[in-house]
Amino acid sequence: MRYVAAGLRDSLAIVAGYLPVGFSFGLTAQHAGLSPWMTMAVSMFIYAGASQFVLVGLVSAGAGIFNTLLAILLINVRHLFYGPAIARFFTATKERLPLAVLAYGLTDEVFASASGRMAEIPSSVRRRWFFGVALGAYSAWLTGTGLGILLGQSLTAGPMWLNQTVSFVLPALFVSLLLELMRSVSLAVIVSAALITLVLLPFTAVHWAMLLGMAGGAFLGVPSMKKQGAHDES
C-alpha cells in the first residue's frame, strides 16, 4: 500500500487539472440534455477525457450511433501507442495487479506523468505505483463530474469569465504534462511528430493528421526506447 499511496501523491498534479475539467464535462453534459445518471455513467465507463466532450456534442447534434462510435474510436486509437510504451516498464512477474486493470486508467495525463517517472520507480513495485496514479486521476474525474452535475443548475447563469476559465484548464494541463514528459522523451521525437501533424493538416482530417503524426514520432522513438529499456535492465 505504501507504493499505491506514493502513486496517489504523485497524481496530485493530474487531480488539480481533472477536478475542474470533470466539472466542466458534468456541466456541459447537463446543458446538452443528458440525464445525471447518464452523465455519470459516461465518466465511469467511457472515461476518455476530451472524447467525452465530443460524444456529448455528437449526441446533442443528433449524430447516428455509427458515426459517434467511429469518431470516438478514432480519437482514442492513440492508446495503441500508449499501451506498449508503458507496458515495457512492467517487467516484474510477481505483482498481482493485471495489466487490463492498469490499462483502463491509462489516459493522456497519466501516460505523460508515468513516462516521466517510471524509470525512477523500482521495477518490482511499478504496477502498484502506476495504479495509485491512475486511481487518483480516475477518482478526481468522477468527483469533478459529480460536482458538475450537482452544481450545474446554479451556475447556468454564471459569469462568462468562469466558463472560459474552466474550458482553458484542459489545454493548460496538457502543456504542463508535456513539459514533464520532455525530460524522458527525445526532443527530436516530439518535434518530428508535431511537424508531421502540421504538414498533413491541410490535406486530411485533424484526427488522421494527429494519428499519423504520433505514428511517425513513435517510429522515430523506437531506437531510443530500446536503448532506454536496455539501460533499465542493466
From TrEMBL:
InterPro entries tied to this protein: Brnchd-chn_aa_trnsp_permease
Stretches that traverse the bilayer: 12-33, 53-75, 129-149, 161-179, 186-210
Entry membrane topology: Multi-pass membrane protein
Record keywords: Cell membrane, Membrane, Transmembrane, Transmembrane helix, Transport
Pfam hit, one: AzlC
Similarity comment: family membership: Belongs to the AzlC family.
Protein name: AzlC family ABC transporter permease
Organism: Celerinatantimonas yamalensis
